[in-house]
Amino acid sequence: MAHNLTNGAAISGVASDREGHLAIFFPTIAATSLGAWIGRMLDRPGTAFGRVHRAHLLLALPLAPLASFLYLWLKVFGPVYALTNRRLIIKRLLLAKPIATCDLATVDRVQVNLSTGCQFLRSGDLQLLDQSGQVSLVLKAIPYPQQVARQIEQVRLAQQSTQLAQAHLLQRPPLGQKPATPTPVTPTLIVPAATTTTGL
Known about the structure:
It is a single chain. With about 200 residues, the protein is of the alpha+beta class. The chain has a single domain, classed as Roll (PH-domain like). It is built from 4 helices and 10 strands. Strands 1-2-5-6-7 form a 5-stranded antiparallel β-sheet. Strands 8-9-10 form a 3-stranded antiparallel β-sheet. Helix 1 packs antiparallel against helix 2. The protein is elongated, with a radius of gyration of 30 Å. The chain starts with a strand and ends in a 29-residue tail after the last helix.
């Protein structure tokens, strides 16, 4: 589940000089080993009755109490993923200090990994890779991971554009001041010295 904290203008917050939260993501129950097992059980191949899979008919009701408990447990004790205009943060609701952070300026690309059981739970892991291909941060069991990956990429690219624009503005002269003109260089004419030739 994801909660956007801006009203349709998340990218505009990237230009702010202060860090602000753009979205918060809560992992699915696949973030736990039991939740991943439930996803694998419900993803098992079998006969489908119309649009309803046989595994859903046989297992959904018995597994519903366990899935509900895991969902509530994660809401209280599980990780929370926060996207700001500068960083990705992993934290817990009961702890004020972040567990892990990753500066978006160091991210080169976002990779989506789908494992067994993700299809039913519609979740996947996101890996944030730096320019060397090393994993900087992993967001486990993100719901609708492709959409979240695109949102992270949009914020990251917007941050890069903002930094380039700010660097360009810093190179411009202050308002009302003309840019310094280079001092013209006057070419120096070198006249060769006269030579005297004496006959023998």
